[in-house]
Amino acid sequence: MKLFLDTGEIRxxxxxxxxxxxxxxxxxxxxxxKSGRGFQETVLDIxxxxxxxxxxxxxxxxxxxxxxxxxxxxxxxHEQIVVKVPMIRDGVxxxxxxxxxxxxxxxxxxxxxxxxxxxxxxxxxxxxNFVGRVDDISGDGMAAVAETVEMVEKYGFDSExxxxxxxxxxxxxxxxxxxxxxxxxxFEVMDKLFNHPLTDSxxxxxxxxxREAGLEIRAKAKx
Length: 223
What we know:
Helices cover 52% and strands 17% of the residues. It has 223 residues and is of the alpha/beta class. It has a single domain, classed as Aldolase class I (TIM Barrel, Alpha-Beta Barrel).
């Protein structure tokens, strides 16, 4: 499964990219606004930090003609950019247009398998199924993810299922179990994937035993 970072913070992308496990970055208008930096500037800086990675950058208009103009502008910035489009009627039409032109898209704010079907039929590259927001209202966000994965595989769509609105490591585990292609998450969630108390205690035991035995990695030079 691919791992994406959901952020507009350059320092977070730099650190995650340094781990060597980052496949892409998703942004949205809220994350860009929080960064306090320019939209194009932020997206291009992310591209420099993650060569070859997919970078989702979102249109903000909701009417087709204006969305198309924004999408064309955003797509022109860098070859790594994936145009992020909301799951609305004009958005689906835009995805079809962009797909026919060979421009990659990420359909966002998808909550049901029926919405995912429309995105897949329009030619979406990524379908962003949100889980945390559904869980917040006592629903089962991961159920739609599993249904979407099954739908995509059953009908042979080229779209990849991207699990979004990830709130904690268990969401990542559930995404793996559902067979999702991608999970995008805040930096703090990705950072927590490293953690386990048995890893910490086991490592400390290895270090203590090694030192107690007086061992060294590099042998001292003979005089």
